[in-house]
Amino acid sequence: IQEHEIKVKILMEVSATKHHYFDMNNNDLYTNKSPIELSLDDLKNYSGKVDCSLNISLAEKYYSKCGTVLQAYMHRTNADIDLLKSPNTNIRLCKGAYKESKDIAFQDYNKIRTNYLECAEKMIKNDVYSCFATHDLWIIKRIEKMLEESNYPKDKCEFQALSGVPIDKTLDDLISKGYTVRYYIPYGPDWYPYSLRRIREN
Predict the structure, then answer these.
(1) Disulfide check for 131: which of 78, 91, 92, 178 has CB 3.0–4.6 Å away?
(2) In the 8-state DSSP scheme, what is residue 11?
(3) Which candidate, 60, 63, 175, 75, places its Cα nearest to that of 115?
(4) Rounded to whole angstroms, how far apart are CA atoms 11 and 53?
């Protein structure tokens, strides 16, 4: 990866990152010279308990390419975007696939869609590197319009999709317009249930 300067993003759970917190700064893969970027996600324990300070600390002190994954169906996400406003970080926004209480998460499909767009708008307004992870063509179309209307730099955002989801035509159109498109490939023993949850989101 380093030899050929291939741009790669690794999606890592917060629990795993905490375990290796102090090792990251000494690993050649996690340096500013590396083409590898790291996104932190609390996939299994997002129920209002995520401490964004870990992500901010990593971004500011240890690893400038550290990003955070936020889920649009959570009530708190809009506020978390402001907490993560930093010149050294980026935000990956997805819908969210786990069953959560109505006390902390939107349950209605259309409300989740609306909140996704509101969160995306705030990310653009905050001028952070914005990653839009969704297979929802309705959302993609509206985000593209937001980006065009705000004249947002195409090198400060990207669209992300799980490899194998049949939206290649839309992704090819985005590439032809100069946007970065990143394909995610699940890896490890839990790749199958992860893939099913991502597809179920939409």
Answers:
(1) 92
(2) E
(3) 75
(4) 18
Q: Using an 8 Å Cβ cutoff, are 93 and 120 in contact?
A: yes
Q: Is 14 exposed, middle or buried (0-12, 13-18, 19+ CB in 10 A)?
A: buried
The DSSP H or E segment spanning 147 is: helix 137-149
Measured in degrees and rounded to the nearest 5, phi and psi for residue 183 equal -95, 130
Q: 49 exposed, middle or buried (CB, 10 Å; 0-12, 13-18, 19+)?
A: exposed
In angstroms, what is the C-alpha Rg of the chain? 16
Which tokens sit at 192?
A: 């199958």
Place of tokens 């993609």: 140
The pTM score is 0.77
- Whole-angstrom Cα distance, residue 87 to residue 128? 7
Give the residues of the chain that fall short of pLDDT 70.
1-66, 198, 201-202
Q: What is the pLDDT of residues 25-84, one digit of tens each?
A: 445 544 445 445 556 555 444 444 445 655 555 555 555 566 788 999 999 999 989 988
Q: Which residues make Cβ contacts (< 8 Å) with residue 170, sequence separation at least 6?
A: 137, 140
In whole angstroms, give the CA distance from residue 200 to residue 202.
5
